[in-house]
Specification:
The complex is a heterodimer of chains A (313) and B (506). Chain A is α/β, with parallel strands linked by helices and 313 residues long. Chain A has 11 helices and 10 strands. In chain A, strands 1, 2, 3, 4, 5, 6, 7, 8, 9 and 10 form a 10-stranded mixed sheet that branches. In chain A, α2 packs across α9. The chains are: A alpha/beta (313), B mainly alpha (506).
Chain lengths: 313, 506
């Protein structure tokens, strides 16, 4: 009798192991915390077919927009099931800046990022027909005019901090004009309502026939604009990017996280995927779970300092 | 000339069985999604976006475009039959469409909406083909100060929307504007008026508000009165009514044209869409009419104005999307994403290098607008019959269920459902007190436009001696300032005119 019970128990145990081993065995929901058609959506959609092939289950993309992503991320840390079947797209510096500003239902540390797979460095761009061709021209123009306006996406955001820092480091009087997204800032530049844009590489690449980039806020020059200097080359210590990654709800089992981490990494190594991403102006990044945590803590310290410095701006 | 050749090529492309089926599928899906309260055109297009992976660029655009156009039209069915706009573009259709249904003229209202939609759709698309590149440049002239005034102008429309009590209309509008400030500020990103409830960070969504404010009071009344007589009389499907209504609608060329032009122009402006256009068109129809007092009592002119304008918005919205790569409405933003994923970059370049795609797309949506008529009529007739046949004990819960599903689906968020229900009861009380849902939703739509326009304008204005000068030193601003003042004083003019005409009769 005892033996039988033991056998049954063992069988059950084995079964749970088999089931656990078999992650994933049903469709995975990939939650995008922004509107459909935006950059977060587009990158997730590009990943989708490759992830499906690697994981062998359908990836269902759903949207949970609102509050600049805060609605979705609050749900991620409070209500989502930690079983690996619901994963969320996350963005930096958004998930650092929102809790800093307060009023949202999550903390930066609560978000368990498992991979940051791409970034979009900030770039300074002006209209294609502008007389400004170099950063020196821009400085001259700013000094002559007294006040220059730069449009960008959101506030606080990578764009807004890059602008504030640029103003501080150069001593120029630059006014940042926030728009509700990178795309909505573009017509303001094309219509001449702002002097320039502090925007992301994606916009500069997609609208390359309408705007020209005069400086980039990355460590090294970017492949799309090989002739454009970095801010550092110009003597301005300004590196500012937005990152996109994938996160799981807190408490997700280790083995599940490893499967997902490996899958995202494999997609990032697919030359076809990389080509598509680069065509749109995304920089491929490879931060696995450990590296992501390190990146977040570094950036947290950086933004906290910047936040204190620029309070009220 | 090459444009015409391309268009001919586009039409030729369409007569491939697969493309035709996709168009028919898009129209059918769009009609269903549009006519369900709470499921908007945006949601429909987003929902079917993944399908485009397996399709070519032009096929997927034809499908999504047909879906979009049909959803905007389908939204009129629930506006007419249930007094609930199916999409935000059909808000104004409830004003006269529902009273028509109440009088047993529901079928006539649906027919009117159908032909007006067809007219508006074709007008918008043809204008796109002729004027697109030219208009795109004008749209760019709209900066934050212009949007601020456009928003203010939009609010003044309330003066001709609310019959009876204009003051209550404006109070309603301001309630809407206040509701729109809940959540994350569009400029600055501060979290406001959430009372530390994370559920409120996302603010008051337009769809939950629309469904709550329009549909819930209707369901409550339905239950309180326990009879469908209150809802409306059975829509009699008369013989010959189709032709008669067609002639009646087409006779009103000026009304159709006015509404379509308004819809097209508002569509061209990035950031303003059918939700604003249908109300502006309605108020313009009231203003131009010889008998403005009859609006709201169930006259076809009201339905013609809103339904022609909202379908004309579609073609207008394609202008900035296709020529500048700037999506003006949420649906256009999804289409932009679809184009990017196909490896196409919307903008002038798309026009020149991939004209085949653009023209097949436009030709496809033109054809879809025609297909929309028979499919829509069959569908609308079925819906009208179904609603009258279902007993109240089944109808009220079904509608309630649909409103909840719709609100949930906006962003898969249960707090949207609570929000919808709360606003629903609030809407019922407000309606009893004489505050209509129309002005409240208008305020909710315009609030963010006014706020971002104001703050962005003040920031840009720092280049001037006084930042606020930017709002009165630009010529385009004055167009809207003058229009706003004129609209604001409209009820005063109206009273005078009635007094004058009354005197003449004596």
């Amino acid at each position: 009798m005892k033996v039988r019970v033991l056998v049954v128990l063992f069988a059950l145990l084995a079964l749970t192991f088999v089931l656990a081993e078999k992650y994933p065995s049903k469709p995975i929901t990939y939650v995008i915390c922004f509107a459909p058609g935006g950059e977060s959506d587009i990158t997730a959609r590009l990943q989708q077919p490759y992830l499906e092939k690697i994981l062998g289950v359908p990836i269902v993309i759903t949207y949970k927009e609102g509050g600049g992503g805060a609605v979705g991320w609050t749900e991620l840390v409070t209500r989502a099931k930690p079983d690996g079947y619901t994963i969320y797209g996350t963005n930096l510096p958004h998930t650092i800046l929102q809790p800093l500003q307060g009023g949202v239902g999550y903390k930066t540390e609560q978000i368990n990022n498992i991979y940051f797979f791409q970034s979009t460095p900030c770039v300074l761009a002006v209209r294609i027909d502008s007389p400004i061709n170099t950063f020196e021209d821009f400085v001259k123009y700013a000094k002559e005019k007294g006040v220059v306006t730069l449009g960008g996406s959101g506030q606080p955001s990578a764009n807004s901090f890059a602008t504030v820092r640029l103003a501080k480091l150069t001593g120029l009087n630059i006014v940042y004009v926030p728009f509700s997204g990178s795309g909505t800032a573009v017509p303001a530049l094309l219509g001449g309502h702002v002097d320039g844009l502090m925007t992301y590489t994606t916009m500069a690449v997609q609208y390359r026939d309408k705007m020209k980039v005069i400086a980039v806020a990355s460590e090294k020059r970017l492949p799309w604009f090989p002739d454009v200097p970095t801010f550092r080359e110009l003597g301005i210590d300004l590196v500012e990017k937005a990152y996109r990654g994938v996160a799981v709800p807190p408490g997700t089992p280790e083995d599940v996280k490893r499967v997902l981490e490996a899958a995202v990494k494999e997609v990032n190594n697919n030359p076809e995927f990389v080509a598509k991403m680069e065509e749109m102006g995304f920089v491929i990044e490879n931060y696995d779970e450990a590296a992501s945590a390190k990146l977040v803590s570094e950036l947290m310290a950086y933004y906290k300092e910047l936040w204190e410095e620029t309070k009220g701006k | 000339m090459s444009g015409l050749q391309n268009l001919a090529y586009g039409f030729a492309q369409l007569f491939i069985v697969k493309t035709l089926l996709l168009m028919l599928g898009g129209v059918s899906v769009g009609l269903v999604i549009g006519s369900l309260p709470g499921l908007s055109a945006t949601m429909g297009v987003a929902l079917f976006l993944p399908i485009t992976y397996w399709l070519s660029a032009s096929d997927s655009l034809v499908f999504l475009g047909s879906l979009y156009m049909a959803a905007i039209y389908g939204g009129s069915f629930s506006a007419i039959l249930l007094r609930t706009p199916g999409t935000p573009s059909n808000i104004g259709t409830t004003f006269d469409g529902y009273p028509m249904a109440k009088q047993g003229r529901g079928w006539e209202a649906i027919l009117t909406a159908t032909f007006a939609s067809l007219y508006g759709a074709l007008f918008g698309l043809i204008m796109f083909l002729i004027f697109a590149p030219m208009l795109a440049r004008i749209a760019l002239k709209f900066g934050p100060p212009e949007y601020f005034w456009l928003g203010i102008f939009g609010l003044t429309v309330i003066s001709s929307l609310s019959r009876g009590n204009t003051l209550k209309g404006f109070i309603g509008g301001l309630i809407g504007v206040l509701l729109s400030t809940i959540g994350v500020a569009p400029v600055g990103g501060n979290v406001r008026f959430t009372f530390n409830m994370p559920q409120l960070i996302g603010g008051v969504g337009l769809i939950p508000a629309l469904v709550g404010l329009f549909c819930i009071p209707q369901v409550i009344e339905m239950i309180l009165n326990r009879s469908k007589q209150q809802l409306y009389q059975e829509a009699k499907v008369q013989r010959g009514l189709v032709r008669k209504t067609f002639v009646n609608v087409m006779k009103r060329q000026i009304d159709l044209l006015r509404a379509s032009v308004i819809g097209f122009i508002i569509g061209v402006l990035p950031g303003a869409g059918g939700n604003i256009a249908n109300l502006v068109a309605y108020s313009e129809a009231v203003r131009a009419s010889k008998h403005p007092e009859k609006f709201g009592t169930g006259i076809p002119e009201g339905v013609i104005a809103t339904e022609a304008s909202n379908n004309a918005v579609v073609g207008g919205g394609f202008v900035p999307l296709m020529t500048l790569g700037v999506p003006g409405t949420p649906v256009d933003a999804i289409l932009y994403g679809a184009l990017l994923m196909q490896g196409l970059r919307p903008g002038v370049e798309l026009f020149t290098t991939r004209a085949d795609v653009v023209y097949t797309f436009i030709a496809g949506v033109i054809l879809a607008s025609l297909v929309m008529v028979p499919v829509g009529l069959a569908f609308g007739r079925g819906m009208a019959k179904l609603i009258t046949k279902i007993p109240l004990s089944l109808l009220a819960p079904t509608i309630l269920f649909l409103t909840m599903v719709g609100s949930y689906c906006v962003s898969n968020n249960i707090s949207d459902v609570y929000m919808m229900l709360i606003l629903g009861f609030l809407g019922f009380v407000l309606r009893k007190l004489g505050f209509e849902a129309g002005p409240i939703t208008l305020g909710l739509i315009l609030g963010p436009i006014i706020e971002s326009g104001l703050v962005q304008g003040l920031l840009i204005g720092r280049q001037l001696t006084q930042p606020w000068l930017i709002f009165i030193t630009r010529p385009l601003c004055w167009v809207f300032i003058v229009l706003s003042v004129f609209f604001l004083l409209w009820p005063v003019f109206l009273k005078k005119r009635i007094v004058v005409s009354g005197g003449e009769q004596k």
